[in-house]
Amino acid sequence: MSPPLIQPTDKGLYCAAGDFYIDPWRPVSRAVITHAHADHARAGSDQYWAASPGLGLLRRRLGPNGLIHGVDYGAPLQFGPVAVSLHPAGHILGSAQVRVEYRGEVWVASGDYKRDADPTCAPFEPLACDTFITEATFALPVYRWPPVASVARDIHDWWHRNARQGRTTMLFSYALGKAQRLLAALPAEHPGPIYLHGAVAPLTQDYRDAGVDLPPTRMVSEAPKEEDYGSSLVIAPPSAAGSTWMRRFRKPVTGFASGWMRIRGNRRRRGHDRGFVISDHVDWPGLLQTIRDTRARQVLTTHGRADELVRYLNELGLQARPLATLYGDDEDNA
């Protein structure tokens, strides 16, 4: 029996036939990257291949060292006898699935992905394959996402109420992907200005540079010291909560936007006034639909609820098993 086309090593997921890695967690000579989140794009490798729309984000993540090759979605790559192409994953700007074909066998590594519509990135493209490597971040039946437009309207109404009371609306979300998706989803009429934390602002500019239409924003660091922020919406990463940075805001009302907010106890545990259910990862129905769409004979699961998903798929008669990786389960990035 021939070895698996892609298998985990101490450096990352490795395709020996093509001598390249997918999202390696240690420096390697050739890395194919699914997207620019820190657990998938790590500095130190000699060469990188990634989808062209996310190159600005990836350069910011990886720094000046390392040669980065931009690849159009669907364009053919050749690593020795192995054919590789990148296809939209719908996760964030420039996110990609990696399709690998060798001797008639096709594997697809999804990276992180979602099936919901998102104007800030290309929509997910289902790919037929023999083996599908899928994330399992929210692989439980309880995780079902409401329509994004409805969540955005709830955020907007909450902001309006806070503005009428002269209180700052502080919304915590992951700085890359989630923040920009929220900005794009908000209704056009705002009760006040939108401010961005310093960790969010440059990434948002990368989205604008890539042609994504987003509403006007200001940087908190550029506001005058006497700024009131009373009618403002401030978007910040979760790490800013409870920090000295928060002292400039008078009586802020706080909310957290994440798929984890589907469980009420998570909102209480985090101590926020509101929780909004929105995720850049696939939910349970979308996950099962994707597996059906691939028509894969074998499903390999990574991070999150990998073991639970494997048990469920095995009960359905599919061949499934967990795949050991170092991809993160960061609750702030969900």
Automatic annotation (TrEMBL):
Keywords: Exonuclease, Hydrolase, Ligase, Nuclease. It comes from Spiribacter onubensis. PANTHER family: BLL1145 PROTEIN (PTHR11203:SF49), CLEAVAGE AND POLYADENYLATION SPECIFICITY FACTOR FAMILY MEMBER (PTHR11203). InterPro entries: MBL, RibonucZ/Hydroxyglut_hydro, Xnuc_lig_assoc. SUPFAM superfamilies: Metallo-hydrolase/oxidoreductase. The lineage of its organism: Bacteria, Pseudomonadati, Pseudomonadota, Gammaproteobacteria, Chromatiales. One of its GO terms (molecular function) is exonuclease activity. The keyword Hydrolase applies. It comes from the Bacteria. Its EC number is 3.1.-.-. The keyword Translocase does not apply. This is Ligase-associated DNA damage response exonuclease.
